[in-house]
Amino acid sequence: MSAQITIKDIAKELEISPSTVSRALKDHPDISPKTKKAVNDLAEKLHYQPNSIALSLRKSKTNTIGIIIPEFVHFFFSTVISGIEDVAYEKGYNVIISQSNESYEREVSDTRSMVSHRVDGLLVSVSKETRDFSHFKELIERDIPLVFFDRMCSELNANSVVIDDFEAGFKAVEHLISTGKKNIAHLYGDLNLHICKNRYDGYRAALEKYGIPFNEDFAAYAGMLELDSAKELMNRLLDLPQRPDGVFAHNDVVAYGAMQAIKERNIKIPEEIGVIGFSDWQFSSLVEPGLSSISQSGFEMGQAAARMFLDQIENEDENYVPQTKVIPTKLVVRGSTVKQ
């Protein structure tokens, strides 16, 4: 090996991860005594010395937080950002915001750009295209604070602030069932995203609990924020021999597209078809009838994510253990499911 021994050199020789080596050298309680001894013995044998320049950079702060969201246009993410800023500015931190535009490549580029500009850490909601999380793993290995919000990565040991999307999806469908609906369609998003998959599973679980058979024709991909495709899809569902009498959409934009298609056919909402969305966008209370929805409390999620980030970055304890916080959701009932 070269004279300048690094943590990666030790990790490679012991066939363990660099983050494990780093934690072992810091005497982290999650690392076994056997591993700690192996790491420290090899480090001594190879005359490993911590990179003093890297350490000084890590300890210096710019009081800037990087935020990466999938899309600015999404009302939910704007409320999350407001919550983050509410806490960050009070503590003397500035924020830099970028959008991945649901692109993996752009997410990687944004991550590296922000780190190169020496943000103190990142708050991230991953893109729908992201399958490889190595760019975030690098941050963890370099001890750069990282908090996922809404869309998290279960493969990495990192701070996360989420909602229980399964329970929320179940709650939405259970509400439709409580109004007498039995032929309930689900207009779902990208099932590669945990949030969409969990809402879909909640839909299936609610049907099963109440003895309602699952109809494959009633479950259809509707895109993420695509109003026109939601209308087109809803029209196809309305053309079925047995049309739905209830619709659970994975977000409010898709729900509104479904409502437009239903209203254009002079079908009564909620008497003939009930509709419920997700996220409780501002327009949900303004449309006619008002759109029932699941409120995600984006502002509260943003506050929690910022506090978790600041707790991590300001905590001098090297044995800091990442956490997951679950923000409760709320069923907001309006005229699209209950006659008002």
UniProtKB/TrEMBL annotation:
Transmembrane regions: none
Recorded superkingdom: Bacteria
InterPro entries linked: HTH_LacI (IPR000843), LacI/GalR-like_sensor (IPR046335), Lambda_DNA-bd_dom_sf (IPR010982), Peripla_BP_I (IPR028082)
Entry-linked Pfam families: LacI, Peripla_BP_3
Alphabetical list of SMART domains matching this protein: HTH_LACI
Entry annotated with the keyword Transferase: no
HTH lacI-type domain residues: 5-59
GO molecular function, one term: DNA binding
This protein's UniProt keywords: DNA-binding, Transcription, Transcription regulation
Protein name from the UniProt record: LacI family DNA-binding transcriptional regulator
Organism: Agaribacillus aureus
